[in-house]
Amino acid sequence: MQHLTVLGTGVLGSQIIFQSAYSGKDVVAYDLSGDILAKLPERWEYLKAAYRRDVPDASEEKLDAAVSRIRATADLADAVSAADIIIEAVPERLDIKQQTWEKVAAVAPERTIFCTNSSTLLPSDIAPFTGRPARFLALHFANEVWKFNTGEVMGHAGTDPEVFEEVAVFAEQIGMVPIRVNKEQPGYVLNSLLVPFLNAAAALFVKGVASPEDIDKTWTIATGAPVGPFRIYDVVGMMTPYNLSKDSADPTMREFAEVLKRDYIDKGYLGKGAGRGFYSYE
Questions:
Q1: What pTM, to 2 d.p., does this model score?
Q2: Where are the transmembrane segments (predicted)?
């Protein structure tokens, strides 16, 4: 599977695009408008700097070659016309993902494999909208994919086992360690562990128990972990926890969403990729 299309060029979408291109794949980056896509060169420069810092063999030649393998378009039919595999990384809302796949199904080649990078939603809730449920499954990436390189592969009851294995092999080809999730699980393995941890930190913050800095300090000193939960929030970016929390059944998490919106998102403090979140990275 040489030709990849990524739907959505946000924090994680852009990382998947760059990592795949760095690994030698030809990648089409799709987003809704030319204005969004016009900002991608800045994102590539940010990622090139991250690779120089964290990836030992990241020469200028390899980084420039990665950028040369990326083509951007706001035309969906054009974006998917030659795709062997499509990875969707649109906002974490079921209705948006369902509508996106309905549109993709109408224009993508029959041979193309469809993958969602959803962090929390089940493939079985999206599969009926893809027009090819047997060729649809999840391929989930951790943030900062060049460094935290798990690729969680999770199908649904109707996923073709051969397609499942093809996606696991593809994940390995782009530098991921394939994690085969044997049963549909909200949050896969990683987020089943991570989300309760982050929610606990959010509750401590919202209830005024401690500041984000002191919550992080407590965790890193007491456990030896390199970062605390609010550093992780900054890496993830504010929009994902906001979308996951704003309609939560838990009033504390709804309050956390309000805090994120008022004190961070509305001020442009969208996380590490934007230069500022709970911490400043400028």
A1: 0.83
A2: none
